[in-house]
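Researcher: I'd like a candidate sequence for this fold, 596 residues long. If you have to choose between options at a position, lean toward the conservative one.
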């Protein structure tokens, strides 16, 4: 029966596919398609793992000390019984044979199916056996991990769609950590739904960078959607339709085709310069997470990288951080890929919803019962780890010998932080000189992400060459709304008058000091804000490469002189969104250059 689930739309477009449910704890399980010719070998891998686990369990049982409680032996009996149960193994083989899932994926897919059946059982004793089943599956996964290595991407040489079951797949999970999301960049999924998360949580940001439809904060989605259900994800409205009727499906397929056409049309603007009707040049920069994203930035027509979120190099490494050489290679790769265009590397912004390990913000909050957004993150974390910080600074300085690099410090709020950061930069330069390593001159910029930074910007700007306004955090800290928490997502409001005033003030202060200013938060890539930001005097926007053409189209249709006249009206209003739509939209809609 068809039904709908509602969440927050975070990445546009429509995805239609079969649901793949993944429990948070099993997101790191490899997901790839195998070739028809490998089905037998993959089934054999599963059989091998089952035999290995059976041996493990019988050995454990045999070696139980004589005084061990009898329940232990009974528990191992239950595990052995579950292991031999055909509903687990036969059905898992079916996922391998019919869908061409790799064995680990097939096993976790079947676990989701069975776990739900256990959840629905009336009998308490039977319901609690779910935990036993999960333990058995964990053992099987571990046994398989001892075999060939795993990855999210298709097996080498297997094109993502080269499998018998042609159905596209969408991922449904309770939560996905940003680092895991990044792994999915090369995966087979065409859309995402998560139960938790806010619009500018990093999970959502990475989904957007993949340019595939996504809905977060859909609360019960992973509980009520079943493995293999047909699902429509409407990334424009946040609606998720499960088991859609043929009519509804056709309607969404039509929209899917339309947005494909629109995308093609917009992509023709790639090499058009972003100049407003009144001749104002506007800089279109890209936000990237990994050096490999730089190619997409150039392809999309970016004239530089406005934000390289270097922290993604630091995540999910089991506590071992990337060394100077590894970082240097990564930064140099991005710099070289940009072919002489500037690359703004932000020093690591670990913390809040970007922990070093694969914990999601939600797990972090529950685990520590603290608000990590107000804790040791970004520049605070870097300054608390001076050796690590200098290592990163040296890598960035060395990369600047290979192209134009700008260094950006995140979440600056105190002048003391500025002083310490500059001392660290000076020390890193000295160390490079002593080691005889080449480095180039970098401009140094500050992010403006906390209201305090806006209020003291004239003082900060005495030290910095440029400013980048991080509206995602500026909104979070101005309105005291955790950006990763869906429970307060309705209060996360970029149109809030206080937010607009702070952004306006930051731009004006930067102009007054004669320093370049850019916005690299999600507002920069959202066409709803382009006019108001242009009216505020912003001429540099940094966003995911996939958003550049849409924003450029908006810029090409704008007349900043006319927009400026209405700015005060928007800023003074109690409902700036409504006023802005009323004032700016009709003018933007008139006949002006388009990609057509
Ligand atoms: C921001 O806060 O707007 C920003 C760009 O940084 P991040 O999203 O990585 O916190
Ligand atoms: Mg930020």
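Model: Candidate sequence:
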């Amino acid at each position: 029966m068809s039904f709908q689930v509602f969440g927050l739309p975070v990445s546009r477009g429509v995805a239609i596919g079969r649901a793949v449910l993944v429990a948070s704890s099993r997101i790191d399980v490899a997901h790839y398609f195998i070739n028809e010719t490998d089905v037998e070998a993959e089934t054999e891998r599963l059989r091998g793992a089952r035999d290995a686990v059976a041996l493990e369990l019988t050995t454990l049982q045999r070696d139980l000390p004589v005084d061990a409680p009898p329940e232990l032996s009974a528990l191992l009996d239950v595990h052995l019984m579950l292991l031999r149960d055909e509903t687990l193994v036969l059905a898992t083989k079916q996922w391998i044979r019919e869908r061409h899932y790799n064995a680990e994926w097939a096993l976790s897919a079947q676990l989701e199916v069975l776990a739900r059946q256990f959840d629905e059982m009336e009998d308490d004793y039977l319901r609690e056996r779910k935990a036993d089943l999960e333990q058995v599956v964990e053992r099987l996964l571990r046994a398989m991990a001892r075999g060939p290595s795993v990855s999210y991407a298709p097996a080498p040489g297997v094109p993502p769609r080269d499998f018998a079951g042609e159905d596209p797949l969408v991922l449904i999970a309770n939560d996905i950590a940003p680092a895991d999301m990044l792994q999915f960049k090369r995966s087979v999924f065409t859309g995402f739904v998560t139960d938790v998360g806010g619009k500018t949580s990093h999970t959502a940001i990475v989904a957007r960078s993949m340019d595939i439809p996504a809905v977060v904060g859909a609360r019960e989605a992973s509980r009520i959607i079943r493995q293999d259900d047909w699902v429509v994800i409407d990334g424009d409205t946040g609606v998720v339709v499960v088991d859609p009727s043929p009519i509804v499906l056709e309607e969404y397929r039509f929209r899917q085709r339309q947005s494909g056409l629109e995308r093609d049309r917009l992509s023709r603007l790639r090499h058009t310069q972003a100049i407003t009707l009144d001749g104002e040049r506007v800089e279109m920069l890209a936000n990237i997470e990994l050096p490999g994203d730089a190619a997409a930035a150039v392809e999309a027509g970016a004239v530089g990288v406005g934000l390289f979120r270097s922290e993604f190099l630091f995540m999910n490494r089991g506590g071992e951080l990337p060394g100077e050489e590894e970082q240097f290679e990564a930064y140099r790769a991005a710099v070289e890929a940009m072919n002489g265009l500037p690359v703004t590397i932000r020093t690591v912004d670990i913390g809040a919803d970007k922990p070093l390990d694969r914990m999601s913000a939600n797990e972090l909050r529950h685990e520590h019962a603290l608000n990590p957004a107000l804790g040791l993150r970004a520049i605070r974390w870097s300054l608390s780890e001076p050796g690590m910080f200098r290592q990163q600074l040296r890598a960035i300085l060395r990369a600047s010998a290979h192209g134009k690099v700008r260094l950006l410090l995140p979440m600056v709020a105190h002048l003391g932080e500025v002083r310490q950061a500059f001392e660290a930069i000076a020390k890193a330069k000295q160390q490079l000189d002593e080691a005889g390593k080449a480095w180039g001159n970098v401009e140094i910029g500050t992010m403006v992400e906390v209201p305090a930074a806006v209020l003291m910007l004239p003082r900060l700007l005495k030290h910095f060459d440029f400013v980048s306004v991080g509206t995602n955090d500026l909104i979070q800290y101005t309105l005291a709304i955790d950006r990763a928490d869906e429970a307060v997502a309705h209060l996360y409001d970029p149109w809030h008058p206080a937010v607009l005033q702070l952004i306006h003030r930051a731009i004006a202060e930067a102009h007054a000091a004669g320093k370049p200013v850019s916005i690299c938060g999600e507002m920069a890539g959202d066409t709803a804000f382009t006019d108001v930001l242009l009216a505020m005097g912003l001429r540099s926007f940094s966003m995911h490469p996939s958003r550049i053409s849409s924003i450029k189209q908006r810029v090409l249709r704008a007349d900043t002189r006319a927009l400026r006249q209405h700015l005060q009206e928007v800023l003074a209003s109690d409902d700036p969104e409504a006023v802005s739509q009323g004032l700016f939209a009709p003018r933007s809609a008139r006949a002006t250059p388009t990609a057509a």
